[in-house]
Automatic annotation (TrEMBL):
Coiled coil: none annotated. Residues 1-165 form the DhaL domain. Gene3D superfamilies: 1.25.40.340. InterPro entries: DegV_domain_contain, DhaL_dom, DhaL_dom_sf, FakA-like_C, FakA-like_M, YloV-like. It comes from the Bacteria. One of its GO terms (biological process) is glycerol metabolic process. One of its GO terms (molecular function) is glycerone kinase activity. Pfam families: Dak2, FakA-like_C, FakA-like_M. This is DhaL domain-containing protein.
């Protein structure tokens, strides 16, 4: 995540959402008003940091504009508009290039739009939110210098993405893609911004009328990053100051303190940047799908970098991943020929640790190598194990032709299955079974032991059943292992060993 002095933006937003969910769990009816009331109260009580408080106000704005019985797409558009109004009013000095910008742009772009279904609405919201997040570095110099997007904006995008997925019936969570600044950027950026040491948050149950403008003026006089929220009889404030005691003395004049959180941000900063290597061996791997990522993690990979065909990770992505391992020796598996050059540049970017690039062009090679992983082995011995495992495995990739074309002397027709062994097109045709059988025979599969199949997003169950039948009848020597891979473009990635 993009580092900010008052803790971790992602954790603060997560805390806000989790507390809202806990309050929802305590609602005993399906009454929409009661649900929204729980969201408002839970989010405000769970709000941590500047980002958490702002998020709570976005949710509050949506709740206050919600109809009492049911919500239509047109109603949700109005709720977004009110979320913008409430969130901006809570921040003394709104800054563009943050989650505030996301909700503002959504409100502006939604005006005059009509949507028949929530699926259409949320597809549109997610697209606009994603585009806005990607433009945040152009709005904030610090983001531009660090080469990252704003974490709060990205967090709000994830929330809208989750809403969209829930509307479509998909409630699986995937938060692998995050932005992270380097250690050097943390050292340079965070420390220089901390002029007020203590991040002070107070929740007060007021027992008398409070002049909001007077309280705002007081907070701005003794600090910065002020966020002030009034909700029913509860006041929640956030301020960065060198005098947290004065804040407590002030708020106790008009109510009872129900929650206090004071963090020394300079100590937080020192903790965050203490990322020197603390273990001997670490592993970073590029992965094209969630299922394959889970398998690699189970085999010992420390950090996964999402990527693959058509979605190559950047230098910054790989460098941040290496830093996250906190290891003296880091094995880096690019798992794609297009990522190999970038990976080699990473190996030259560090003075405080050794980065060993294992030149894999296919993620199946990484799986084969990681089966031999031993975190207690010497790096040189481990590299030999990896290289031997890779040399003995056969990576197979199956896809379909999207157009008529030629491949060398071969004529390829649209819709044909294309089966590659490493980079070589070994067989093709309209029958997957025939194509696979031909390839396995060429690769002496009768002398092998295991065929592992990673299922892509667009695999077909009837095809998988035919593959299982083929292996059982023609290659009974092979143990067939099948896993959800989740990779795009290739319905089947296979590993023959």
């Amino acid at each position: 995540m993009f580092p900010v002095p008052d803790g971790d933006t992602g954790s603060n937003m997560c805390s806000t959402m989790l507390e809202a969910c806990k309050y929802i769990d305590n609602v005993k009816s399906d009454d929409l008003i009661e649900v929204w009331k729980a969201v408002k109260e839970g989010a405000l009580m769970g709000a941590r940091g500047n980002s958490g408080v702002i998020l709570s106000q976005i949710l509050r704005g949506m709740a206050d504009a919600s109809p009492r019985e049911y919500i239509t797409p047109a109603d949700f558009v109005k709720m977004i508009s009110n979320a913008r109004k409430v969130a901006y009013s809570a921040v003394m000095r709104p800054v563009e290039g943050t989650m505030l910008t996301v909700v503002r742009v959504l409100d502006e772009r939604l005006q005059g739009k009509n949507f028949e279904t929530f699926e259409e609405l949320f597809d549109w919201i997610v697209e606009i939110a994603r585009d806005t997040v990607n433009r945040t570095p152009h709005m904030l110099q610090k983001l531009r210098e660090a080469g990252v997007v704003d974490a709060g904006a990205k967090g709000l995008y994830y929330i809208f993405e989750g809403m969209r997925d829930a509307v479509k019936g998909n409630i699986q969570v995937n938060l692998e893609e995050v932005e992270q600044a380097s250690v050097e950027e943390l050292q340079r950026m965070a420390f220089e911004e901390i002029t007020n040491r203590y991040c002070t948050e107070v929740a007060v149950r007021r027992n008398q009328v409070v002049e909001k403008s007077e309280l705002e003026a007081f907070l701005n006089e003794i600090g910065d990053s002020v966020v002030l929220v009034e909700q029913d009889d509860l006041i929640k404030l956030h301020v960065h100051t060198n005098h947290p005691g004065q804040v407590l003395e002030k708020v106790i004049e008009f109510g009872e303190i129900v929650k206090v959180k004071i963090d020394n941000m300079k100590l937080q900063h020192e903790h965050v940047i203490s990322t020197q290597p603390t273990k001997e061996i670490g592993v970073v791997a590029v992965s094209p799908g969630k299922g394959i990522s889970d398998i690699l993690k189970s085999l010992g990979v420390d950090v996964i970098v999402p990527g693959g065909q058509t979605m190559n990770p950047s230098f910054a992505d790989l460098k941040a991943a290496v830093e996250q391992t906190h290891a003296k020796n880091v094995f880096l598996f690019p798992n794609n020929a297009n990522v190999l050059l970038t990976a080699k540049q990473i190996a030259e970017a560090f003075d405080d640790r050794r980065v060993i690039v294992v030149p894999t062009s296919f993620v199946q090679e990484c799986v084969a190598a990681m089966v031999e992983y031993d975190p207690d082995a010497e790096p040189e011995d481990l590299l030999k194990r990896f290289e031997e495992a890779i040399s003995q495995c056969v990576p197979i990739s199956v896809t379909r032709a999207v157009r008529d074309s030629r491949y060398g002397n071969r004529r390829i027709r649209k819709g044909e299955y294309l089966l590659f062994v490493r980079k070589e097109l070994v067989s093709h045709g309209f029958s997957l079974v025939k194509v696979l059988k031909e390839a396995l025979e060429k690769e002496n599969a009768h002398e092998k032991e295991i065929l592992t199949v990673f299922l892509g997003d667009n695999y077909r169950k009837p095809e998988l059943e035919k593959i299982q039948k083929l292996i059982g009848e023609e290659f009974p020597n092979l143990d067939l292992e099948i896993y959800e891979g989740g990779q795009p473009h290739y319905p089947y990635l296979m590993l023959l060993q």
